[in-house]
Design a protein that fits this description.
Elements: E1 2-3, E2 11-19, E3 32-33, E4 35-36, E5 39-40, E6 43-44, E7 51-52, E8 67-76, E9 82-85, E10 89-92
Antiparallel strand pairs: 1-7, 2-3, 2-6, 2-8, 4-5, 8-9, 8-10
Length: 95
């Protein structure tokens, strides 16, 4: 994950929400914080407001061929304020 133009020297979290009604309309608010597998990890910005982190999450709980709508957001790790939010994407599990 790479972010820029955020507050300097601040920690953020990346979250995702999955919607199994595949219609290109992400309505789920069941946010899951991403990180190093099942352990949440922050994205820390430098003095210019740029941050990078290598984050991952297993999709093993979804059978191969499963398709769902997914969207992402970045929140302030302290206040939980949403600072970035993605569009809605369709994802298919393909191992």
């Amino acid at each position: 994950v790479w972010v820029r133009d955020l507050a300097p020297n601040t920690s953020y979290l990346l979250q995702r929400a999955v919607d199994t009604t595949i219609d290109g309309n992400c309505t789920s608010t069941a946010w899951l914080t991403l990180g190093k597998g099942a352990v949440a990890a922050s994205i820390d910005t430098d003095e210019r407001g740029t941050g990078r982190a290598e984050l991952f999450r297993s999709v093993a709980a979804f059978p191969v061929g499963s398709t769902f709508d997914i969207h992402f957001r970045v929140i302030d790790a302290i206040t939980s304020e949403v600072v970035l939010e993605s569009s809605c994407y369709q994802f298919t599990v393909d191992l």
